[in-house]
Amino acid sequence: MTQDEEMKDHPTPSHSISTAIPSTLHHLKEIASIIETGSNSKEVRRISRAVRLTIALRSKLTAPVLSSFIDHVLPTASDSHSRLTSYLPKDDDHEMEVDSATSAAIQTPAKHLLPELEIYCYFLVLLFLIDQKRYEEAKACSSASIDRLKNLNRRTVDVIASRLYFYYSYSYELTGDLAEIRGNLFQLHRIATLRHDELGQETLLNLLLRNYLHYNLYDQAEKLRSKAPRFEAHSNQQFCRYLFYLGKIRTIQLEYTDAKESLLQAARKAPVAAQGFRIQCNKWAIIVRLLLGEIPERTIFVQKGMEKALRPYFELTNAVRIGDLELFRNVADKYATTFKTDGTNNLIVRLRHNVIRTGLRNISISYSRISLADVAQKLRLTSADPIADAESIISKAIRDGAIDATLDHANKWMLSKETGDIYSTNEPQLAFNSRIAFCLNMHNEAVQALRFPKNTHKEKEIAEKRRERQQQEQELAKHIEEEDDDDDF
Predict the structure, then answer these.
(1) Is 321 helix (H, G, I), strand (E, B) or coil?
(2) pLDDT digits (tens, 9 = 90+) for 398-431
(3) 405-408 and 369-371 as β-strands: parallel, antiparallel, unpaired?
(4) Are 368 and 416 in contact (CB under 8 A)?
(5) Which of 96, 95, 102, 88 is nearest to 22 (CA)?
(6) What residues contact 339, with CB distance under 8 A and at least 6 apart?
(7) By C-alpha distance, which of 68, 61, 63 is closest to 108?
(8) Dist CA 170 CA 126 (whole Å)
(9) Contact 72, 108 (CB under 8 A)
(10) Closest by CA position to 267, among listed 287, 291, 239, 293
(11) Res. 88: pLDDT tops 90
């Protein structure tokens, strides 16, 4: 038995609990003071900082700490206090420890009830209920917080409200009732639009797209996305989610080039800590690149922490690269459950044609002349008339430009033409142009992301005008002095 396991077996002394819990409570009170300062000064960045600090404390939230914090922040006679404390379990031992350790701090009442602190308490309790897997109570708490938010029109609440919107949808998704809140999400999006809450609009638009895509309603999602108002992104996380949903929609609509760009951009912009999101982006991007006829680099599959999750897609890519239809079928059957869970099963069915085309391209490069029967055997076609299927497949590949060959229908042969120098075509120029376009787009995004002090250009203009005016005054004074000297003579 290791040392860590021995430490877990022995109960923790009561004095260690009493020192650990007040530490979390002290941090929550500091966050509350930051929210109060931000509310009074109307600085949204302070509220954003408070939310970031809360996420770092999420694993340390317990029922006694939340009860003590709610008692400290909210008036005991308020409806929010009674409602929130009803979601927290009562633990007499822990309550006695918290009361004895922090009685002096807790007895200090708050100056006045702020809406930001009230919504923040809803946010804390909702995080606690979701982490404790009490999803039904989390649904009730989130619904109560949304009802309270509808009556608040304060820009300092928008940051916390956007997080509540997400967990409101997430709690219903965990219980399988996501369709119930679709109308409510539309109402909240309309309210956010009327109040010019752009962060709320971003969050709610992504939640609506997620709601539609959860039920495979891609047409409705595209109609909503195309008609929703567009503005500059305020949250990198929400922008990454939007790009991911856009990439999924474009993939289903056969717009693979746009889908690839959106998915790769979402994977690049996603934070390093969001590993699950980056894995999903890479899975869809791999499928899209395969549908485009590209073979993803091996480095994509060996990224740190992603090897196991991307293993099925690595084997699938290997089957497509070789052009082995039987190997492709085996991989699809082996990981059918994984592909169905990821929502890529329908896309993998589309890949069958790409596997056949890749195998046919390899055959056309290897043989200058080959019979259709041998083509059907090498492609492992298992239909009733494989020769006729091979003939139709070759005809379509020639018509689409996938292979440079001709068909001899009389002798049942495929005649391949000699491969020319690729550098004599426009492909190197197109590849170079795409790289230049990518670098230019990255430069433009970096310039747009720069922050400049407010009214810097106006202050510069004022300084230049002041300098010109002083110069004119000096020239005028010099001219007057010269005229006075001429008069003296």
Answers:
(1) helix
(2) 776 666 677 767 777 777 766 666 677 787 888 8
(3) unpaired
(4) yes
(5) 102
(6) 312, 332, 345, 348
(7) 68
(8) 11
(9) yes
(10) 239
(11) no
CA 383 to chain centroid: 43
The full length of the chain comes to 489
Q: Which amino acid is present at 348?
A: I
Largest CA distance in the chain: 120
* Distance, CA of 226 to CA of 315 (rounded, Å): 36
What amino acid is encoded at 306 in this protein? M
Integer angstrom CA distances of residue 243 from 173, 238, 248:
21, 9, 9
Identify the residue whose tokens are 């494989």.
386
Q: Are 254 and 218 in contact (CB under 8 A)?
A: no
Q: What are phi and psi of 154, to 5 degrees?
A: -130, 130
- Cα–Cα dist 359/341, whole Å: 29
DSSP state, residue 157: G
Q: Which residues contact 20 (CB under 8 A, 6 or more apart)?
A: none
Q: What whole-number distance in Å separates Cα of residue 381 and Cα of residue 377? A: 7
What rounded mean pLDDT belongs to the chain? 78
If phi > 0 it is left, if psi is from -120 to 50 it is alpha, else beta; for residue 296 that is beta
**pLDDT digit string, tens, across residues 74-83:** 888 778 888 8
Give backbone dihedrals phi and psi of 333, rounded to 5 degrees, phi first: -75, -35
Q: Which residue has the tokens 């996501």?
A: 178
* Cα 322 to the center of its chain, rounded Å: 33
DSSP per residue, 376-443: HHHHT--SSSHHHHHHHHHHHHHHHTSS-EEEETTTTEEEEPPP--GGGSSHHHHHHHHHHHHHHHHH
User: Measured between alpha carbons, how far is residue 211 from residues 127, 180, 221 in Å?
Assistant: 21, 10, 9
Q: Please provide the distance, in angstroms rounded to a whole number, between the alpha carbons at the two ends of the chain.
A: 110
Radius of gyration, CA atoms only, the chain = 32
Tokens of 163: 């997080």
Instruction: Report pLDDT digits (tens) over 206-245.
Output: 999 999 998 888 899 899 888 887 767 678 888 889 999 9
Q: What is the pLDDT of residues 427-478, one digit of tens each?
A: 788 889 989 998 998 888 888 877 666 665 556 667 777 788 788 888 877 7
